[in-house]
Design goal:
It contains 3 helices and 3 strands. It is of the alpha+beta class. A hairpin with a 4-residue loop joins strand 2 and strand 3. The termini are close together.
């Protein structure tokens, strides 16, 4: 793991908002899946909306990383994993093995 840099506060807040939206959507999707039989309960349309929102959120997160890494000149491979410490804004890259 290596430190790439430190985000500006507005960058950190933007990513944090996207991240927590993703977490909330993941949790709501899991709850609906655990309840099962969404067709009978009328939850199918809600489930489809959550899946769509998740897709859009993941796209937004990918675009954020692309834009920010290009801005700072951070080089990475698609198989690398990012880590952000939201308290400090530090951005780390975990190299793939």
């Amino acid at each position: 793991m290596r430190l790439l840099g430190i985000l500006e506060e507005d960058e950190r807040k933007e990513l944090e908002g996207i991240y927590y939206k993703r977490v909330a959507l993941e949790n709501m999707i899991l709850v609906l899946q655990e309840r099962g039989n969404m067709e009978e309960s009328g939850s199918e349309s809600l489930y489809q909306k959550l899946v769509h929102d998740m897709s859009e959120t993941l796209k937004k997160m990918g675009e954020w990383w692309d834009k920010t890494s290009q801005h700072y000149g951070w080089e990475y491979r698609k198989e690398n994993k990012w880590e952000v410490k939201f308290e400090s804004g530090e951005v780390y890259l975990h190299d793939s093995m």
